[in-house]
Amino acid sequence: MENHVNTLWGQFYGWLPTLLSYAGQLVLAIVVLLVGWSIINMVTRGMGRMMAASNIEPTLRGFLLSVVGLLLKALLLISVASMVGIATTSFVAVLGAAGLAVGMALQGSLANFAGGVLILLFRPFKVGDSITAAGNTGTVVSIEMFRTVLQDSTNDIVYVPNGTLSNNVVINSSQSERLLASVSLLIDYNDDIDKARALLLALFQNDALVLKAPAPSVSFLPKPANIAVTLGFWCAPGNVTPLVAKYSEASIQILKKEGFRLGVTARTAA
Predict the structure, then answer these.
(1) Spatial separation of the C-alpha atoms in residues 9 and 68, rounded to whole Å
(2) In the chain, which residues have pLDDT < 50?
(3) What are the transmembrane regions (predicted)?
(4) Are 181 and 243 within 8 A, CB to CB?
(5) How far apart are CA 74 and CA 67, in angstroms?
(6) Are 258 and 195 within 8 A, CB to CB?
(7) Neighbour count for residue 20 (Cβ, 10 Å)
(8) Is there a contact between 254 and 199 (Cβ–Cβ < 8 Å)?
(9) What is this structure's pTM?
(10) For residue 146, how many C-alpha atoms fall within 13 Å in the half-sphere facing its CB?
(11) Regarding beta strands 170-172 and 266-269, do their DSSP bridges make them parallel or antiparallel, or are they unpaired?
């Protein structure tokens, strides 16, 4: 029994230098982990302050800080693991292969994400703007990382992928100080076009929402059975829809009252 105990102690003393060596590596790895973790948090906070000072969108700012923080911490953990003797080459290779597989499976989502980053960086539109893109027209309700939410004229909510928005033409009506709105209708060939012009232009005399320069205009275009009348006027972007509705009704009423023979009417807003 005594010989067995002596043998164990002998083995322990033989392993002691190795244990002390690993203990030193472990302590050093823990110190590096704690210090590195604190430095990464300081770096991400500093980046956050710089991004806020640069007026980068909060959504994009939070996402970028999260990605940078995760990447730096992953590199730190891999470095610490190698310090204590853990082989990290295979681990890194597995992570790379997994990342490639995930990227291939999520090509569409990654394209939408990249589109969201571009939209938030270059700001072709912002929340509250009225835009037309990919066959959809509406007011921007929110800009998310993968999609943009619009509300159209019927209050339907439209979700448009950011990849589509970043790779197609986007018309932002809200970035202009003024827009040209128009109302179209049809009159008979026997009607007096000079009288029609005077009656229609008189509608705008006391409307402060209609710009005086450029002045409203009335144009006539002959059609096979009628004369097309287009009433054009300039106004602020937010006033286009209500003013088009107002003057579509007012123009019909005034011309009917004066005995004009109207055809099928249509109204448009540019």
Answers:
(1) 50
(2) 2-6, 8-9, 12, 106, 265-270
(3) 20-43, 63-87, 93-122
(4) yes
(5) 11
(6) yes
(7) 10
(8) yes
(9) 0.53
(10) 5
(11) unpaired
HSE of 227, CA atoms in CB hemisphere, 13 A: 17
Per-residue confidence (pLDDT) for residue 30, from 0 to 100: 81
Location of structure tokens 């940078």: 68
CA distances from 70 to 37, 40, 52 (A): 11, 10, 20
Q: How does pLDDT run across 257-269, given as a tens digit for each residue? A: 999 988 754 444 4
Q: Which helix (H) or strand (E) holds 174?
A: none
Distance from C-alpha of 52 to C-alpha of 44, rounded to nearest angstrom: 12
* Calpha distance 210→181 (Å, rounded): 10
Which residues, in sequence order, are bridge partners of residue 227?
A: 187, 222
Alpha helices per DSSP H over 147-209 = 162-166, 193-202
pLDDT tens digits, one per residue of 160-182: 998 888 888 888 888 788 888 99
The two three-digit tokens of residue 62, written as one number? 């939070």
How far is residue 154's CA from residue 207's CA, in Å, rounded to a whole number?
26
| Angle of the 58-83 helix axis to the 2-53 helix axis, nearest 10 | 160
Q: How far is CA 224 from CA 187, 188, 228, in A?
A: 12, 11, 10
Q: Which of 225, 263, 231, 235 is nearest to 248 (CA)?
A: 231
Cβ atoms within 10 A of the Cβ of 80, count? 21
Distance of alpha carbon 206 from the chain centroid: 40
Give CB contacts under 8 A, 24+ apart, made by 239-247: 239/209, 240/173, 240/179, 240/181, 240/269, 241/153, 241/269, 243/181, 243/207, 243/209, 243/210, 244/181, 244/182, 244/183, 244/268, 244/269, 247/183, 247/203
> Partners of 229 in the beta sheet?
185, 220
Cis previous bond, 237, omega within 30: no
| CA separation for the pair 217, 204 (Å, rounded) | 10
β-pair type (170-172, 130-133): antiparallel
